Amino acid sequence: MKKLVLQGFVLLVLFVGVWLGLSQINWMKLFKINTVIEKVPEKLGEMYWKFFQEHQVEVLDSTIVQPIDSLIQHICTSNGIDPSKIKLHILSVNEINAFSLPDRHLVIYTGLLNATKTEDQLCGVISHEIAHMEKNHVMKKLIREIGLSTLLSSTTGGNNGEFILESAKILTSTAYDREWENEADLKAVQYLQNAHINVKGLSQILEVIAASDSDRSHSLTWLSTHPDTWERIRIIQKRGNGKNKILKPILTDITWNKMKNSLNE
Q: For residues 224 and 211, what is the distance between their CA atoms, to the nearest angstrom?
């Protein structure tokens, strides 16, 4: 009996000793899991952008790209965000749409640029998308819809064309959760106020699109993927009402009109 007790005690000591030894090992560092996970957004961003670049026509006209880049620069610097981290892409697509890809890729369709009537409206959309980036909603959405393990394997595998094709729909045509949309709206209002941009622009572009008689299946993507539009408009108006600082235009009328004219050429 004593022999069995002694053997059990020895086994317990060995188990505790092994457990303590293993617990001292930094397994995350050993297998470089953190590094791999940190690289996932970057790799996914490259994969998704390559997909869109191959299937759509990118707009490179400086009279269009530079003014939008100036708006992004102003919004970011006014809110302590590094504008150099945001990768702007404009695609010649006749949809009212803008969306974010992993690793801070911002994609804007020419259909949205044509729909915006003022600089404030375009800044509203841009601020909303930057808010999604800052809150990491893009990766959260992909992880929830697809799963981290699948995303990890997609960045290390070979032929992932079908995966990119199917999952890209999540980024372009599937709404974020209501909580995330509201969070992005309120953050966008804050960005606009800090940048001395009229908050009404965000609610106005939503109103313009919501009241449009256009074919929703083709032209109203940005609106149709965002839930409870009119309720969101009400909240944005309430939050921004009377709280604007002295408003300062970013672009000159000449620059804005030249951009709009270039879109129609």
A: 12
What is the pTM for the complete model shown?
0.80
Distances (CA, A) of 14 to 23, 62, 69: 14, 70, 63
Between the alpha carbon of residue 177 and those of residues 141, 228, 230, 234, 239, the distances in Å are 8, 11, 16, 18, 20
pLDDT, position 22 = 46
Q: From residue 75, give the alpha-carbon distance in Å to each of 64, 65, 109, 110, 218.
A: 18, 16, 19, 20, 29
pLDDT band at 224; cut points 50, 70, 90 = low
Q: What residues does each domain of the chain span?
A: 1-26, 32-263
Encode pLDDT of 127-179 as tens digits: 999 999 999 999 988 888 888 778 877 777 666 777 888 888 888 875 677 88
DSSP class of residue 84 equals G
Distance CA 160, CA 58 (A): 23
Fill in the DSSP letter of residue 177.
Answer: P
The DSSP call for residue 242 is: T
Round to whole Å and give the CA distance between 213 and 206: 14
Looking at the chain, the whole-number percentage of residues with pLDDT higher than 90 is 48
For tokens 């317990």, name the residue. 12
Place of tokens 């997909």: 51
Q: 262 near 64, Cβ under 8 Å?
A: yes
State the Cα–Cα distance between residues 4 and 23, nearest whole angstrom: 28
Burial class (CB in 10 A: 0-12, 13-18, 19+), 156: exposed
